[in-house]
Design a protein that fits this description.
By secondary structure, the chain is of the alpha/beta class. It folds into two domains: 109 residues, no CATH class; 164 residues, Nucleotidyltransferase, domain 5. It is 45% helix and 19% strand. The protein contains eleven helices and five strands; from the N terminus they run H-H-H-H-H-H-E-E-E-H-E-H-E-H-H-H. Strand 4, helix 8 and strand 5 form a beta-alpha-beta unit. Helix 1 runs antiparallel to helix 6, helix 2 packs across helix 6 and helix 9 packs across helix 10. The longest helix is centred in the first third of the chain and has 35 residues.
Length: 291
């Protein structure tokens, strides 16, 4: 019998399948027990009534598994091996969908961060960026004496692995908010060690550049044209601006690897294409705007 794996194309797919099998084992062995512990800590009180068919830890695990596996719809997820692993009795796919929608943002964020840390491994180069997104939530306003509905607009601010394309931290900003707002707090939530930290001029602030340097990462953030090297308590800012001025943009880009940010410009575009139509807000806890 002919061994089809001798061909380079098939060999690459075989390596990909092995990688996914390894990730599946890690999800079962490490992520789910941690989610159960987090759920017990965050919800220590025993609630009255019948226990849910899909517990919060199970729902958070299924939300992560859905994005990591081959299950593209909730119908497929309801009949997948993940449900069998969790010991969930036969349920309608809408039960899983509602359980995920009811999750607290904190538990869901922890679940996503766990899988991101598994994928990124020991160290990573990362990118920070923001994108705008319309949501299906409206507010009333008066325009030329007439009342009308205006669709609300939000910005997603995120930090992700530049090469493995997994998000490590995400914040929701108000529609007119600047990308730099709240980025320091988001950086503190990233637990994977960072090598180079790529960002566009929207994040070129003295305090933020210094925070990136203090975290042990190399700030590769393009300074604006009118930037001055005045320290004002941020020596990392002076170093960044002086190096940029001495080398010029092209040489600075090649030396620091700033060009690695450009292929990542489509990361949020892919996110919006996949989830943009599902961005609904039906209750206050489903959206968090930075103050």
């Amino acid at each position: 019998m002919k061994n089809v794996t001798v061909y380079e194309f098939n060999e690459k797919w075989r390596e990909r399948d092995i990688a996914y099998e390894s990730l599946e084992d890690e999800l079962k062995r490490r992520v789910y027990p941690l989610l159960c512990s987090l759920d017990r800590v965050t919800r220590p009180d025993k609630r009255m009534g019948r226990p849910p068919k899909v517990k919060p830890a199970m729902a958070a695990f299924l939300a992560v598994a859905k994005e990591c596996g081959n299950e593209n719809t909730y119908r497929e997820l309801a009949s997948s091996r993940w449900v069998e692993f969790l010991g969930i009795k036969r349920v309608h796919y809408t039960t899983i969908h509602k359980a995920i929608k009811r999750l607290s943002p904190g538990l869901l964020e922890d679940a996503g961060r766990m899988i991101a840390e598994l994928v990124s491994g020991g160290k990573m180069d990362c990118v920070i960026d923001a994108t705008g997104m319309d949501i299906r939530k409206y507010e009333k306003e008066v325009y030329r004496g007439e009342e009308r509905r205006k669709r609300q607009y939000l910005k997603l601010n995120g930090i992700w692995d530049a090469y493995r394309k997994v998000f490590h931290a995400v914040d929701v900003l108000e529609g007119k908010a600047h990308e730099y707002k709240g980025s320091q707090e988001m950086l503190e939530r990233v637990r994977t060690p960072i090598g180079r930290f790529f960002g566009d001029p929207a994040y070129a602030g003295r305090d933020f550049v210094q925070d990136v340097a203090d975290s042990g990462a190399e700030p590769v953030i393009k300074p604006p044209k009118n930037a001055t090297p005045k320290t004002k308590g941020g020596p990392a800012w002076r170093k960044l601006v002086m190096e940029y001025r001495e080398l010029g943009y092209e040489d600075w880009r090649d030396k620091t690897g700033y060009g690695e940010r450009f292929p990542n410009e489509g990361q949020f575009g892919a996110f919006d294409t996949r989830f943009g139509d599902e961005a609904n807000v039906r209750s206050r806890h489903m959206v968090r705007g930075s103050d």
